[in-house]
Structure formats: C-alpha cells, structure tokens
Design brief:
Elements lengths: L1 H47 L21 H10 L1 H32 L5 H10 L9 H9 L6 H6 L11 H8 L6 H13 L4 H8 L4 H9 L4 H16 L3 H6 L7 H6 L1 H11 L8 H39 L1
Helix pairs in contact: 1-15, 2-15, 3-7, 3-8, 3-11, 8-11, 9-10, 11-15
Length: 322
C-alpha cells in the first residue's frame, strides 16, 4: 500500500515543480517583452534629462551624472510646443467625436438595413483601409484648395471657391462624413457590434412608435459602449500620430505636434543662427533636444494609454468575443 502512495506523491511533486518552472518561464518571457517595449521610452527619458556633456560618456548607461531641464526649455521654444499641442488636441478631440457618431451611423446602416449595392459599398469601405493616403493626396489637395461644395460657396458668397488649405477643416470635414483617418475600420467595428445585437430591441422600439433615428440614438447606441470607447481611443491615437495629411493641409500657421517634431532639427538651426550660435555643430545638443521633443510628443499618448488601458482592453476583448 505504501508504493502507490509514494508514486502518487512523487507525481504530485513533479506536477508542482513543473507548474513553478512554467510560471517562472512565463514571467521571464513577460519581463523580456516588457523590456523590449519600454526600452525606447526609457531611452528617451534618459537622454532628455541628460546634459549634452554626458552623451558620449562611456561610464554612463542609463543614469546621467548631470541632470538638466534645458533640453525641454529649448525644445518647447523650438517646436512652439503649446501652440502645436493645442492644434493637435483640438483636431483629435473634434475628429474623434465626429468619427464616433458618423461611423456609428454608417455601421448601423450596413448592419440593419437592406438596400441596393449594400455588399459592394461595404467592400469599398473595407478597401479604403488598404489604399495608401499618398495615392489620394493630390486630388484631395485640389479639392480643398478649390472647395466649392457643389456650388454652395458661389450661392452664398458669390465666389467661385474657397481655399481651406492652411485651416483645420480638411481634417474635420471628412470625419463628419465618416471619411476620416481609418474610418473604414471604425465602420467595420460598429457593424460587427450592431449585427450581434438582438433584433427584438428594434422591434420593441418600433412597436412603441420610435423611428429609425430615435431607435438608433435611444436604444442601439447605448448598448455599444465598448465599441464607442474603442473607436474614440483608436481615432484619438491615430489622429495624434498622423503626419502626412497634417503636413499637406494644415500649413505652417497650424502645425500639428508631429509636424513640429519632424522639423525640430531645421528649427534648431534657425534659432541657433539667430542667437549667434551653431547648435548643429554640437551633435550631443541636437540628440538631447530631439529626444526631449520625442518625449514631449509621446507623453500625451502614454498618459492616455495609462488612464484608459482598462477600458481599451475590455473593449478589444468584447470585439474579439463578438
């Protein structure tokens, strides 16, 4: 009777040891992956608060010997940071809100209504996700440079067209009509959520006398909070990091934060020339200020992710389940 008990206890011990080893390997793998993901952020922080004299010091790896905030002061002045931040934040909040509403209407239409060419139109919506923006920039530029809105400009102003280049409208108007950055993906997300809601909700609303719009805003929209959170966060983050369209349409007076960051080396050269110095001849100063600019640009997104990661993870989980 003792041998079976001994064999059982040995088996249990091996199972426990195997679980411990598996857990240790899992945590080691997670730490390695976390380090790979956090390395750029840690490097930016280390370089941004480092004195230029410490950049090429071989004895310094992460923690600098001399800390300074001059890198941030020069970068904020060079990038005109607060103006660029205001432009970017305004665009992202407005475009994010419009994307949430307009793409929800489009997704609801594809999910619940039958009309001629529905499948073809939905395929075209998905196709917009794979079309490079660079292939559309020329007709878009002409469209906003000579915007007439189907003759409405001439009807109300007497002019043939209005020039919207250099304003925020070329990025806001497409979001209003569900044609903004990544709108095809947002419409797809909404469509999947609406298709998985029971039809009985709408039938009950129609019986109570509600029309399609009242049903949408009162019944259907409150039931897809996870999709709304997902679309808004995606729109906010992608619009924040969007560079190409902002560079083409906003102009120098309304530079977004990504455009300001891309021009930081040239701006540093201009400001240093006005001050009678040659900062570009000192690559250490350039490196620390560029890293400070990268950190200032990425900081709002990092803070947003930290504050909303629970909602984002829950929303993505629901999308996967559905």
């Amino acid at each position: 009777m003792k041998k079976p008990i001994d064999r059982l206890s040995v088996k249990v011990k091996f199972q426990r040891v195997g679980k411990v080893i598996t857990r240790i390997l899992f945590y080691v793998l997670c730490i390695c992956l976390a380090y790979q993901l956090l390395y750029p952020v840690l490097y930016m922080i280390s370089m941004a608060i480092r004195d230029p004299a410490d950049v090429n010091d071989p004895s310094i790896i992460w923690v600098a010997k001399h800390f300074t905030l001059d890198n941030f002061r020069d970068t904020i002045k060079t990038m005109n940071y607060f103006s660029a931040f205001r432009v970017s934040l305004t665009l992202r909040l407005v475009c994010g809100t419009l994307d949430v509403l307009s793409c929800a209407l489009a997704g609801y239409g594809f999910a619940r209504f039958n009309f001629w060419g529905k499948k073809i139109l939905f395929v075209l919506v998905i196709f917009t996700m794979v079309v490079p923006t660079q292939t559309l920039v020329l007709p878009l530029y002409v469209k906003w440079r000579y915007a007439d809105f189907g003759g409405l400009v001439r009807l109300f102003t007497g002019n043939e067209f209005v020039n919207l280049i250099g304003t925020l409208w070329p990025l806001i108007i497409p979001s209003f009509f569900a044609m903004g950055v990544r709108s095809g993906l947002y419409i797809f997300i909404y469509r999947q959520f609406f298709m998985n809601l029971p039809v009985a909700l709408e039938d009950a609303a129609y019986i109570d006398g509600a029309g399609p719009y009242k049903t949408f805003f009162s019944i259907m929209l409150p039931n897809i909070k996870n999709a709304i959170i997902t679309v808004f966060l995606f729109s906010f983050m992608w619009n924040w990091s969007e560079y190409y369209l902002s560079k083409q349409f906003l102009g120098s007076a309304n530079r977004s934060i990504m455009v300001a960051l891309s021009s930081i080396r040239m701006d540093l050269s201009s400001l240093s020339a006005l001050a009678g110095t040659q900062i570009l001849s000192n690559p250490e100063k350039v490196a620390t200020r560029v890293m400070a600019g990268c950190l200032l640009t990425a900081a709002p997104m990092l803070i947003t992710f930290i504050l909303t990661q629970r909602f984002l993870a829950d929303s993505i989980e629901h999308i996967g389940i559905k």
